[in-house]
Amino acid sequence: MRLHINGDVRETPALGTLADLAAWLELPDFGSAIELNGEVIRRADHPATALSEGDRLEVVRLVGGG
Fold first, then answer.
1. How many CB atoms lie under 10 A from the CB of residue 4?
2. Entry's InterPro entries (predicted)?
3. Over the chain (66 residues), what is each successive 10-residue block's mean pLDDT?
4. Residue 45 · residue 11 · CB < 8 Å
């Protein structure tokens, strides 16, 4: 599957949902967000949100510091 992730085209295994993508990217349960084709998707909706070839995603990980 070919997805646009943070501006880069990436070949991924066949991922069915945003939850699958989050697991593949090893995103933490808290402190990250995914935007799919211009829309931020709530974490609770990740398991039901299907991915399609060519989708555009922005993945953000929050980083703490001081």
1. 14
2. Beta-grasp_dom_sf, Mopterin_synth/thiamin_S_b, Thi_S, ThiS/MoaD-like
3. 97 96 92 96 97 97 79
4. no
- Domain membership of residue 57 (yes or no) is yes
Cα distance between residue 51 and residue 1, in whole Å = 9
Q: What CATH number is attached to the domain comprising 18?
A: 3.10.20.30
3-state SS, residue 60: strand
In a domain, 53, yes or no: yes
Cα distances (Å, whole numbers) of residue 37 to 57, 63, 64, 66:
6, 24, 27, 33
Strand ranges in 1-66 using DSSP code E only, listed in sequence order: 2-5, 8-11, 32-36, 39-41, 56-61
Q: Tell me whether residue 66 is in a domain.
A: no
